[in-house]
Amino acid sequence: MMFALHTGLRFNEIWQLDSKSVGEEDGIKFINVKTAKQKGGVSKYRQIPLHKNIEYLGDLKWLEQIKKGKESSDYFGKRLNRHIHKSIPSTNVSFHRLRGNFAKAIKDYCLENSLADLTSVLLGHSTDLATDTYAKGVSLKAKKEALKGLDIFYLLII
């Protein structure tokens, strides 16, 4: 749950990760997330910095343990939703709500701190194509700054 809350990834995006998905650039650890195939079958990736609250999950060994003997993300999704319902009984909270909380925390932080809203970039949503053509992506440093909006979730790890 913590990993999903702090990365904003979809079930299938988490399921595709492995130890080769972890990288570091300019001292910033990140997860390389496969997002889509472009023309010609070339895969496209986005980099999500690891928030300090989940650095201990960064090696993805926990995910490799879950994936042993399982072929699809369905098992993972059902298991996570069961865990959520045990942790937060009598609610309609689901895995996808974690993604919504991630988005709200990032958007609020960016607005409150006069930063460019990087919510779409971090969630893997399409952005302004004209801007992307000229800007050529967003730096890891800028993404890491936006992830400070997730600092509010530190109480969940105590």
Automatic annotation (TrEMBL):
<dbReference type="InterPro" id="IPR013762">
    <property type="entry name" value="Integrase-like_cat_sf"/>
</dbReference>
<keyword id="KW-0233">DNA recombination</keyword>
<dbReference type="GO" id="GO:0003677">
    <property type="term" value="F:DNA binding"/>
</dbReference>
<dbReference type="GO" id="GO:0006310">
    <property type="term" value="P:DNA recombination"/>
</dbReference>
<dbReference type="InterPro" id="IPR011010">
    <property type="entry name" value="DNA_brk_join_enz"/>
</dbReference>
<feature type="domain" description="Tyr recombinase">
    <location>
        <begin position="1"/>
        <end position="148"/>
    </location>
</feature>
<dbReference type="GO" id="GO:0015074">
    <property type="term" value="P:DNA integration"/>
</dbReference>
<protein>
    <recommendedName>
        <fullName>Tyr recombinase domain-containing protein</fullName>
    </recommendedName>
</protein>
<dbReference type="InterPro" id="IPR002104">
    <property type="entry name" value="Integrase_catalytic"/>
</dbReference>
